[in-house]
Design brief:
By secondary structure, this protein is α+β, with helices and mostly antiparallel strands. The chain folds into two domains: 6-143, 2-Layer Sandwich (Fructose-1,6-Bisphosphatase, Chain A, domain 1), CATH 3.30.540; 151-263, D-Maltodextrin-Binding Protein, domain 2, CATH 3.40.190. The protein contains eight helices and 15 strands. A hairpin with a 4-residue loop joins strand 7 (113-121) and strand 8 (126-131). The longest helix has 22 residues, at 6-27. It starts with 5 loop residues before the first helix and ends with a helix.
């Protein structure tokens, strides 16, 4: 990134340090200590260890900032205006199955706005980073959303609700959305890592993405990436904030309204 700020350098350094341990754990996947966190949702020793590393590194650099953590919950800081939003392993199920598609996601929130975001896939060494008003980057190369204008040329990402994610009505709602998007597009992809799905929209690999029932740490950094790459991000049905509703629709400017029209 051109003229990286001190803050984004801190975030990248923390992600890269945590990624070194994750790479080792990914190489020793069969030895990981795994416990059940809920139906169809796993947490591993690697999750907890990665989160501790990220908290330690970010706290060392910005000791007054608070945290919103997937594993550790909310931790208030003396600076009430800033907090880190962290997912230590987005795509834990992929990680535990040896699928090299998972990410460390770090976002910095200032009051109600996400002002910086980093998404790093340790398995591929792809580092996505964005700062508000400064554009989005993949490994220091500027990225933009795709230029496709026709829904029938578009490839759209999604997240399929599994056991324990949404109720029967939510599953039924998703199947209705899936049927409409299938009929209107060139293809649908389900990769299992929302932060990387959003990063793929930002870099033009996907033309759009939608999912229901997400948490803020799943998408905070990815939302900024898409917006800084020239894309639109809203709630899946309204113009509301997906970080509040948990339902997200992201796409390039030409396809966003069409995608929302299919899933709303």
């Amino acid at each position: 990134m051109a003229l990286r700020s001190a803050t984004i350098n801190v975030m990248i350094a923390a992600a890269e340090k945590a990624a070194r341990g994750l790479k080792r754990d990914f190489g020793e996947i069969e030895h990981l200590q795994v416990s059940r966190k809920g139906p169809g949702d796993f947490v591993s020793a690697a999750d907890v260890k990665t989160e501790k590393t990220l908290v330690a590194e970010l706290s060392k650099a910005r000791p007054t900032f608070g945290f919103l953590l997937e594993e550790g919950g909310t931790k208030a800081g003396s600076d009430a205006d800033h907090r880190w939003i962290i997912d230590p392993i987005d795509g834990t199920t992929n990680f535990l199955h040896g699928i090299p598609h998972f990410a460390i996601s770090i976002a910095l929130q200032h009051r109600d706005a996400i002002i910086a975001g980093v998404v790093l896939n340790p398995a591929t060494d792809e580092l996505y980073a964005a700062e508000k008003g400064q554009g989005a980057y993949l490994n220091n190369r500027r990225i933009r959303v795709s230029a496709r204008t026709r829904m029938d040329d578009a490839v759209i990402g999604t997240g399929i609700p599994h056991k324990g994610r949404l109720d029967a009505d939510g599953h039924k709602q998703f199947l209705g959305q899936l049927e409409k998007v299938m009929a209107a597009t060139a293809g649908i992809r389900r990769a299992g890592t929302a932060s990387l799905d959003l990063a793929y929209v930002a870099s033009g690999r996907l033309d759009g993405f939608w999912e229901l029932g997400l948490q803020p740490w799943d998408m905070a950094a990815g939302v900024l990436l898409v917006r800084e790459a020239g894309g639109f991000v809203t709630d899946a049905a309204t113009d509301g904030d997906p970080l509040t509703t948990g339902n997200i629709a992201a796409a390039n400017p030409d396809l966003h309204a069409g995608l929302k029209g299919l899933i709303a």
